[in-house]
Amino acid sequence: MMAKKNYMEILKASTKLGLTSFGGPTAHLGYFREEYVVKRKWLDDKAYADLVALCQFLPGPASSQVGISIGMLRGGIFGGFLSWFGFAMPSVILLVLFALLVTNGSFDSGWIQGLKIVAVAVVAHALMGMGKSLAPDKPRIAIAVGAAAAILLMPTAWAQIGIIVLTGIIGYFLYRKAEAPEAVKLALTFGKKTGLAAWAIFAGLLIGLPLLRPVIESSYYAIFDIFYRVGSIVFGGGHVVLPMLEREVVPNWMSADLFISGYGAAQAVPGPLFTLAGYLGQLMGSGLGVLLAVVAMFLPSFLLVIGTLPFWSIIRTKSGVQAALKGVNAGVVGILLAALYDPVFTSGIRGPLDFAIAIIAFAMLVYFKLAPWIVVLVTAILGAGAYAFLS
Questions:
Q1: Which range marks the domain in which residue 64 is found?
Q2: Based on the structure, what is the number of domains in the chain?
Q3: What is d(CA 294, CA 88) in angstroms, rounded to the nearest whole number?
Q4: Which of 254, 227, 246 lies closest to 343 in space, CA to CA?
């Protein structure tokens, strides 16, 4: 009976957050703290901070992983699923509806141009915030700049993976002597054996899916492989998924315009940016494509959280791990910097008028601190107006 009550509480709290959490991963963490720490008192600030640190350490969407972790602490593995479901599903549904509008021709191309323009402002804003927190000193700024230059010169998915590995090695050598903070012991309903099993499944799928893809000639298999692989290797949160997904789905599955339009629309809805998978899945494979894309995108997050939580108290105290993570995070800033130019700027800005609208959107976000959905709406209207004027 208590378990059922906990499950309903988890679903209710997470759905409320999924309907109201605008503003991206940093804002999500603030909403989570208010709901789970301050209001419901499911955990204290120290444990919450440790969960945030864990999810920054793992690849994948940090805010979603924090929600999954809190759900697991409250209601086991199924509690983690409910926490994710409530948080992610509202934006998945909204983005699938947007994809249907776009493919049915019910969405004017001027509005789409506005969404592409707002993506420029949103990525630039994200880059500013991430740069301050993840590249705060000269060595990490240098890592970020080097990573951006390398990605622009070698725009492939494998180059991005190589850069993440290389920046981790550089970070280890630069910061390995820094002290790691003490960890908080977390109360879990599963142990290290379950954690090891989760790691085995995670690694098996990451290695096995690409190996079997040439043998299994199925578009649905390809969708699952693409989104699982991207969800497994994206460090730095939702915005960094943009360049990796773009290189996987453009131009084989859709045009750059359709891709960037979906990214712009994802800024207007609450919840995690990884739900962009719902939009892309609809364009790539309709209903089954949505299911496969969303499941594959978030499955690595579940496996990584389950696999790491039982070992976190040990990992957290290793200064070498923390040092490598500092390098990886700086490299992620560089990857996002490269993405700001290509595909975001090159696809969204056609001339001075578009750039003027992007500047207005950037100012609304950064200086006037308007809610992202308001900025998206205003920019979409301006884009539609500019398109009508030029036509």
A1: 2-390
A2: 1
A3: 9
A4: 246
